[in-house]
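Justification of computing resources. Each target in the renewal requires a structure prediction run like the one illustrated here; the chain below, 331 residues long, is used simply to show the kind of job we budget for.
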Amino acid sequence: MKKLIFGLTLILTAFAITSCGKEKQTLRVYSIIHEEETKALTDLFTEKTGIPVEFLRASTGELVNRVIAEKDDPQADILLGGATNYHIQANKAGVLEPYKSPLAEKVPSYAKSDDDTYTGFCVLTLGIGINKGRFEEKFPGKKVPATWDDLLDPDFKGEIVLTNPVASSTAYLFVQNQLQRLGYDKGWDYLLKLAPLVGQFPDSGSAPAKLLGTGEYAIGVSYLHAVAKYGADGFDVATVAPPQTVGDVDCIAIMKNAKNMDAAKKFVDFMLSKEAQELMSSIDFTIPVNPDAKGAEGSIPVSQLDLIQYDVAKAAEQKDEVLSKWSLNVK
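Resulting structure tokens:
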């Protein structure tokens, strides 16, 4: 009898350990958003759910290529961040798992896919950043550029910083902004006139805001929230929201055959919540897509922006062609 009881105890203990292990499985996230935001969000998720999270932070192109390469054996459960066209690319490669969160009903139609494979959690809007001190020094008495066309002023040569669209989703969004705003041919005329005025084409989408903050350039093409963050941190910068600009969303998606599917779904629910989106906006000034969430003071509401009707599908379809032409004609 003692042996039987002892054996049953061992079995029950083993089952308890196994069950506990399943509950505590680590959610694995590939994150395109900045490390500071990723850590704050994943820490809050763990605090609220008890589910531990490990994340890898890297660039958009690197992580999208990685999830496609890992299609048959996904090493992450979640792809966090990245503009819509990159999630379309991943979806076409068959690496995303459809999931409709209960909170998805609150998300505007432009911020989610028709087949529930990805959902936006914050709005990203392109604009012009100005280092006020450097601009006044370089161009005394001159008005700051208020429109995209104002950037073509020859006086600005060497004082503009624009990310390389071959490496950055931010700059590719800018390229498509001009192609769709002006039409394909006139858009290319614009881009080829602007390129010689640009002093630097860094690869990182966050670089223009940083280089403006440090005063290395007077003018930069950047996401408005990135420049606003530097302004809130005390740097001498200002934002300009030009008319006929473009907005996109940072998206979240679950990997097909994710090893921690239940935890992944809970994380999507969390990212669409008011609490998570207000936390993110408080750190980086992005605009929440959840209408119940308030953006940080200093962020620009979507209602105050003049946005073009951006064709995400066209941007995705043209990507290889456009980037090839850019590489041949610009750098």
